[in-house]
Amino acid sequence: MAAEITTFVHSEEDLNQAIKISNALFSGDIASLTAEEIEQGFKDVPTIQATKEDAKLVDWLVESGIEPSKRQSREDISNGAIYLNGERCQDLEKVISSSDRIEDKYLIIRKGKKKYF
Question: 13, 49, 58, 103: which sits with the fewest CB atoms below 10 Å from its CB?
Answer without folding.
Answer: 49
